[in-house]
Amino acid sequence: MIPDDAIGALGAMLGERLSTGKSDLAxxxxxxxxxxxxxxxAVCYPRDTEEVSRIVALCARYGVPVIGWGTGTALxxxxxxxxxxxxxxxxxxxxxxxxxxxxxxxxxxxxxxxGALNTELRAxxxxxxVDPGADxxxxxxxxxxxxxxxxxxxxxxxxxxxxxxxVLPDGRVIRTGTLAAKSSAGYDLTGxxxxxxxxxxxxxxxxxxxxxxxxxxxxxxxxFPSTEAAIETVILATQMGLRPARIEFVDxxxxxxxxxxxxxxxxxxxxxxxxxxxxxxxxxxxxxRFGDLAAEAGAGGYRWATQAEERTALWTMRHRAYHTIxxxxxxxxAVVTDVCVPxxxxxxxxxRARAEIAASPIPGxxxxxxxxxxxxxxxxxxxxxxxxxxxxxxxxxxxxxxxxELGGTATxxxxxxxxxxxxxxxxxxxxxxxxxxxxxxxxxxxxxxxGKLVRQN
Amino acid sequence: MIPDDAIGALGAMLGERLSTGKSDLAxxxxxxxxxxxxxxxAVCYPRDTEEVSRIVALCARYGVPVIGWGTGTALxxxxxxxxxxxxxxxxxxxxxxxxxxxxxxxxxxxxxxxGALNTELRAxxxxxxVDPGADxxxxxxxxxxxxxxxxxxxxxxxxxxxxxxxVLPDGRVIRTGTLAAKSSAGYDLTGxxxxxxxxxxxxxxxxxxxxxxxxxxxxxxxxFPSTEAAIETVILATQMGLRPARIEFVDxxxxxxxxxxxxxxxxxxxxxxxxxxxxxxxxxxxxxRFGDLAAEAGAGGYRWATQAEERTALWTMRHRAYHTIxxxxxxxxAVVTDVCVPxxxxxxxxxRARAEIAASPIPGxxxxxxxxxxxxxxxxxxxxxxxxxxxxxxxxxxxxxxxxELGGTATxxxxxxxxxxxxxxxxxxxxxxxxxxxxxxxxxxxxxxxGKLVRQN
Lengths: 457, 457
Prior knowledge:
2 copies of one chain form a homodimer.
Chain A: H1 4-14, E1 18-19, H2 22-27, E2 42-44, H3 49-62, E3 66-69, E4 86-89, E5 96-100, E6 105-108, H4 114-121, E7 126-127, H5 138-143, H6 151-154, H7 157-160, E8 161-167, E9 173-177, H8 189-193, E10 202-209, E11 211-212, E12 216-223, H9 227-239, E13 246-250, H10 252-262, E14 271-278, H11 280-296, E15 300-305, H12 308-319, H13 321-327, E16 332-336, H14 346-358, E17 366-369, E18 374-382, H15 386-405, H16 424-428, H17 431-442
Parallel strand pairs in A: 2-4, 3-4
Antiparallel strand pairs in A: 1-2, 5-6, 6-10, 7-11, 8-9, 8-10, 12-14, 12-15, 13-14, 13-17, 16-18, 17-18
Helix pairs in contact in A: 1-3, 9-11, 9-14, 10-13, 14-15
């Protein structure tokens, strides 16, 4: 509940940009996945940093929870409002503020999506590579430390955020980081806020690294006799210093679904989907070397796609695979696993997960960013069937427990939100208490995205 | 002062591995540069994490300052003991614990130096690329977020540290990070401890990323008509996606000193020294492309060095340049500046610094890692002349003030220590208070490396 006084003050400040309409609240309480709807008490649409600062200061005064919102595409209930409060939707703070081409940097507002940024950059010869499945907001991507298919070459949001402007839980505005490529000037606050899921403050501006649009691009697809053979090829390629821009794995079940529902033409076998970036000569050399390794591992049907249309078709299919898989079982919702393991153990881990899914009552195709050791089982559960949901959660919990035994993590890129909270103590041990101490130091009243990430009182 | 009870308890625990010998204390209070000697009250040499934990817990009980020590090569007085206390020297914790070749990771103890690690790795086909001038300890390098000549391609310590074991200020032992290539599981504590300069705890184990030894290496040297022309070439190359492993700048003054004192054969002009890593074909292509850009910028004498001996000679000269410069003025010590600026402004910034140094009474050759926007003026001051030291500090302060105006940082890789403390408020504004809040949350008694990095009470 937001006290009437606070609602009055917010309304006076924001006019029609404060909403308590039922559909607006419902929209902002909804999750992309299986999480229950948890609406806030109000939603606001600030226009600049100063307004965000005044909103947060007011919420601090009244003890009102503050939840940041980008595009609502988080998978673990990050932006839901389990304790009510005010959702701050950044859709009116979505500008590209400045492109610094020589520094290969861009300043953006948090509501700007990765797609909008790349459209804006098209003519500059530069690009922003991080591509989670959804056209997410850059603020949201920073807050979940998102990545996607290109992290294997370009890194995750941890590597792309050079500097931030942040509104702290008491309304103060700080700047972290600088425009310089590196710094040893104190604690890495930029790195601390990236991945903090809105629990330490609201990001109101991001300075992001850009990369040159590759001179040449080629893609390749190949089928492997086994998951192990595919992973072994990835390991060898990495050790040899090959740097594909994308190394995506799809298992036989995913291949079958893409064939049946999205016009795919895959063998029903484990595949790697690859993309190479560089000069013409470098791309040709890398693709050929990778092809040689794949052939030695028994891979068949190594196909190149240097034509832009063919490539676009391939990656469009890959990017919408989550929705295609979801649609393959009408009426279903998904529990999406997101473990990331040391690459040396990934073959085993995927095969074990596949066996456990096969022994369960629910389908769960597996695909992922295997250059990073990160993969997802899309566990499809009937929306109305609590037994299926429970079975999916058991499978997911088993995969996480195994990943942690192998020295991996519960979440490679989706974040903690509500869905992974129960693994934090097991993953971090006493280090989770240090996270709690940091949370209390920066947000002593606990108003920023309460219920998420740190230990709950 | 360490209370007698505490000394007694430490002695009982450590025997001869606790020292209060005068020369030992002096050695551990000394700086590589102009900073005054500030010895601790005792030095200890623990052998394992459990011992470190017991030492720190004991110091916590008695309120004794604890200062970590690697090789003593920090440039800003990081490991000095302005409030006395106990220096924890990691020379007996210097092992390479485990090489995980498939995961391209290594676990080391903090006292292991980068040189020792690379010797150990030689037969594996892997390498650890970060190379500050000194053969520093990897723990120390992590604590100052060090980099060096190869950061332009491989990144800094921020990018190389996958996971840490840390003894907290109350003696608890935590593990941060995992063996997985990426994670979205909560606050990036690994990133927070990297660069914390021992003010939040003592690192007792590091898991570091490794890289493949390049198949081919070539080096090149070229002289430019102006600093601006050299920097412009670097900017264009970066935008084109060229990824030299090293792009080092030396100004005409540095070239003259290397000629006179270390057998260099440079024109007296600004130079770039480059190294390319990759396949034979990739290295040849990159070097040629870079050569074309340099020629367009008016560079002369583009010389290749594909022979290992010639390359080694070049980089040995570069790595000992600091000491060669120091020796060029007998009896001098150095104030070494370390600003890092947005690359678009670097040409201006270097030229302005050169002009200011030329107008001063002291010599100050400039060299640096210009692919990152980071460069150093080695301001040579007569050890016995306070006026020269004051002039050098004025020059350094002016360079920092200018770097901050340009959106840069006071320190690109050397860290804060004592020498850059007075810039922290100006660089970070209110964000420095957030650093202070984190320090108090993790080290409420302020026993870890007191006097450094955060605001002093």
